């Protein structure tokens, strides 16, 4: 009975994980499809996974994990940085002039015998994403499952939009997000920047903030140098400078 109980728990966890992954993939695709309908010209996009491992590891196992993750992208130069705050393993891989992958494994509890290091996988590209984005979504998901992590994907896309003046930033966001059917949760407004967070139930759970749960953030910033707006969308939250 104990073995069957563990097996059933494993099945339930797999189903929940698949559902969460599917919701993440759907939200990313929906943002991509929607962004193409805006007046924005994409200039930057970032796909990011960040979480701690599910299992406790020794310092040696943390280093081995970093090397194995680096090998997933045929990396050769894994850098190690030691400080009073811990040990950081870092690998950067240029895939093309417009696309690169960055790997970070952080042991922020170096004195502990067993710990759960923080792992970051990041795909960063310039211009509009192509079919490789979906390939890396799947690769990140497979890597997480293979290395004992729960996939936690964030996606952000940014581009320039022609506007008459900075006073139109909020209306730009509202018109851009209208078709999402999203519920506004929080808003931050300054002279040249507007950032609004939303919740879209079909995308699943998100990040809990003071205003409530959010899984979409949209910002518009006025660039006085170009006299244009910078429009950024992110799920569940923007992870790049906006």
UniProtKB/TrEMBL annotation:
Highest taxon of the lineage: Bacteria
Assigned keywords, A-Z: Signal
Signal peptide: 1-23
SUPFAM superfamilies from the UniProt entry: YwmB-like (SSF143842)
Protein name: TATA-box binding
């Amino acid at each position: 009975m104990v073995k069957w109980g563990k097996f059933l728990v494993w099945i339930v966890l797999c189903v929940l994980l698949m559902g969460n992954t599917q919701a993440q993939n759907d939200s990313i695709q929906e943002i991509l499809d929607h962004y193409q309908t805006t007046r924005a010209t994409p200039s930057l996009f970032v796909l990011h996974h960040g979480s701690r491992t599910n299992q406790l590891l020794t310092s040696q196992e943390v280093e081995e994990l970093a090397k194995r993750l680096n090998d997933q992208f045929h990396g050769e130069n894994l850098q190690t940085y030691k400080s009073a705050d811990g040990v950081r393993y870092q690998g950067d891989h240029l895939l093309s002039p417009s696309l690169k992958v960055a790997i970070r494994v952080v042991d922020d509890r170096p004195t502990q015998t067993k710990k759960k290091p923080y792992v970051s996988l990041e795909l960063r590209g310039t211009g509009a994403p192509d079919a490789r984005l979906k390939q890396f979504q799947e690769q990140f998901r497979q890597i997480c499952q293979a290395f004992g992590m729960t996939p936690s994907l964030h996606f952000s896309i940014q581009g320039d939009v022609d506007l008459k003046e900075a006073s139109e930033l909020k209306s730009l966001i509202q018109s851009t997000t209208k078709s999402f059917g999203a519920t506004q949760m929080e808003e931050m407004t300054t002279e040249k920047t507007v950032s609004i967070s939303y919740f879209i139930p079909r995308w699943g759970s998100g990040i809990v903030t003071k205003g409530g749960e959010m899984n979409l953030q949209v910002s518009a910033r006025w660039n006085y140098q170009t006299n244009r707006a910078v429009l950024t969308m992110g799920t569940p939250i923007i992870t790049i400078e906006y």
